[in-house]
Amino acid sequence: MEEEGFQEEDEETLPVLGFEETRVLGSLIEKELTTPEYYPMTLNGLANACNQKNNRLPRSELVEEEVSRAIEDLRIKRLAHRVDLVGSRVPKFQHNAEKELDLIKAERALLAELLNRGPQTSGELNSRANRMFEFEGLSDIEETLREMGDRRPSLVGQMDPFPGQKERRWFHRLAPPPKVEELQDGSSVYVPAPDHRMDQVEQMAEEFKELKEEVEALRYQLREISDQFKDFRKEFE
Fold it and tell me: With respect to CATH, is domain 3-193 assigned 3.40.190.80?
């Protein structure tokens, strides 16, 4: 499925996130806007937020170790950081999206929905994002999305509609565009793009295997040369 105006330079200039990172960042933004009394968040609270049953697609079962690793990756990309509050024995975490990505509250609300639920139509975002920010109707949603898309680099783009549908869906550009998966019942769903880091790991494993084979071949050749040299010396003894 193609999407409109997706350009490689946007991927290069925006931080590229894996699925766990998008879920953690989306959950942090959502909780900042919906339950500020519990924000910043503990690791346990953040893991529960990532795995909650509502407002999450696809659903996840991340353990605290995975969430902690995602936080560290986001910290390196300056999108999240740890907070040690006075009087609290438990470290807490908060996002840095408003500064690093230059987002106002309305934009954070829309981005959180796209991070947590994947591509959505303007109407779907209008019905879901209002719990985080009070938009002035569908036109306000679409204007905010257009402004986010007109940035350089752009933060959102639009994808072609599902087969048999007319409405285009918005998606965030902090990860490669999701793929469409056809279900057995004939419906379609978006699934996150494969984590590019896994491809890198597989490539490194293949390169290591080839290097190991080359070393073994060199050791065999060296052994042959050593035997030949010993035979040569014997001729003069």
Answer: no
